[in-house]
# Entry
Amino acid sequence: MKILDDKELEFIRDKKLHEMKQQIMRADEPKKKKPNVLTVQEEQFELMMREHPYLVVDFWAEWCGPCKMVTPIIEELAAEFAGKVTFAKCNTEENKRLAASMGITAIPTIIMFSKGVVRDRAVGAFPKDVIKSKVKWSFGI
# Structure
């Protein structure tokens, strides 16, 4: 059996530390990648529609239970469609005029805009696969 000297032991220790750091970094990666869901404000909505040709807006309110069920779905879809479709949330309590102009009478309401034109809408808390299929249909993805 070979006895390792201090330099060999130090090399092995450093190599193992490096491997462990890499594992930790990989394990933390999904946590670091937060989906980019924009926040809609009435004043910037027209500009947002011009800048984002494929835009999905979730109209919601803080007190709305079903809205809270849709939030993680919107975040997951934002990650899945990153680079293709922009996702945003509009608090109807803070943006009442915009919500009224969009005909929002119930929340959650999700509207798909293609180049500023409403392509589809979903009123209510739908499962992810339903919302995903509506997004795909709306934008021909």
